[in-house]
Amino acid sequence: MGTFNHYVVVKFKDGVAVEELIQGLEKMVSGIDHVKSFEWGKDIESHEMLRQGFTHAFLMTFNGKEECNAFQTHPNHVEFSGIFSPAIEKIVVLDFPSKLVKAPA
């Protein structure tokens, strides 16, 4: 099938220790072999009207949908979700296969 992506965009609740939460996410992802790559960022440019309160984006890639499904049920992911989910005010999750149009240089 090719690369499969798990894309998460969130707005954290006020008062959440975001840096600590992201460090925990990085540690969790690093320990799960199903994850091919992981990257994240915080929005610094978009107008509030366009961003609708969302502040952080997380992208994980997998070697197919089956690997993503295995990640979703991995005990470390399930455990971390119990910490991550209560810290979120709003979330959008998209899971999709990639269609590469232009490869990195």
Automatic annotation (TrEMBL):
<protein>
    <submittedName>
        <fullName>Uncharacterized protein At5g22580 family</fullName>
    </submittedName>
</protein>
<dbReference type="InterPro" id="IPR011008">
    <property type="entry name" value="Dimeric_a/b-barrel"/>
</dbReference>
<feature type="domain" description="Stress-response A/B barrel">
    <location>
        <begin position="4"/>
        <end position="96"/>
    </location>
</feature>
<comment type="subunit">
    <text>Homodimer.</text>
</comment>
<dbReference type="InterPro" id="IPR013097">
    <property type="entry name" value="Dabb"/>
</dbReference>
<dbReference type="Pfam" id="PF07876">
    <property type="entry name" value="Dabb"/>
</dbReference>
<dbReference type="InterPro" id="IPR044662">
    <property type="entry name" value="HS1/DABB1-like"/>
</dbReference>
